[in-house]
Amino acid sequence: MVKVHRADAAHIRAELAELDKRAVGSASLMMDPAISAAAKAVFNRQVEEVGAKRSPLQAALDALVDKANDNTEALAEEIRAALEEAKRGFDLIADPAQLNAMIGRLVGPTLVATGGRWLPGPETETAADGSVADVPGYIAGGGFEPPTSGL
Fold first, then answer.
1. What is the structure's pLDDT at 124?
2. Which of 5, 48, 74, 90 is the most buried (most CB within 10 A)?
3. Would residue 8 be called left, alpha or beta, if left means φ above 0 and alpha means ψ between -120 and 50 degrees?
4. Looking at beta carbons, which pairs linking 101-108 to residues 24 or more positions away fall under 8 Å?
5. What is the dihedral angle through the alpha carbons of 122, 124, 130, 132, rounded to the nearest 10 degrees?
6. What is the pTM of this model?
7. Per residue in 3-21, pLDDT tens?
8. Burial classification of residue 144, based on how many CB atoms lie within 10 Å of its CB (0-12 exposed, 13-18 middle, 19 or more buried)
9. pLDDT digits over 81-104, tens only?
10. How far apart are alpha carbons 140 and 110 in whole angstroms?
């Protein structure tokens, strides 16, 4: 969504810049004393047309900013809810198997590769990047040190 909003905003800003350039050109010609009143009327009409085209573009840009803010707030609320769920989950952990289950729910299947690298991916012995894992499954559990070691 962020990429789409940025692309849309860049497109609208480019259109606004082009309209502003046209308006400045026409407005400067209207000030030239060597140009006839009829020509100045044409330039004045062009400036008005630019203003009429500019207003909806500016409104669209403002609406895009509001939409991006709304999306950001919704995303932040989802993140807060996930963190609260994780926090509640940690309070209930009594053994490594429960830790495995919670990590599986919150993070998804993972592998621990040689050297302890964590590789998100399917529960197979080969990770998505082609490396072979020492332990297929979740990143904690039987055979590992207790979750509190090293704290």
1. 47
2. 5
3. alpha
4. 101/138, 103/138, 103/139, 103/140, 104/138, 106/82, 107/139
5. 130
6. 0.44
7. 888 888 889 999 989 888 8
8. middle
9. 988 887 887 777 877 777 777 777
10. 10
User: In sequence order, what are the beta bridge partners of 126?
Assistant: 132
Contact 96, 147 (CB under 8 A): yes
89 sits in the region (left: phi over 0; alpha: psi -120 to 50; else beta) called: alpha
The DSSP string of 102-145 is HHHHHT--EEEEGGG-EEES-SSSB-TTSPBEEEEE-SSSTTSP
| Residue found under tokens 């998505």 | 128
Place of tokens 């407005």: 27
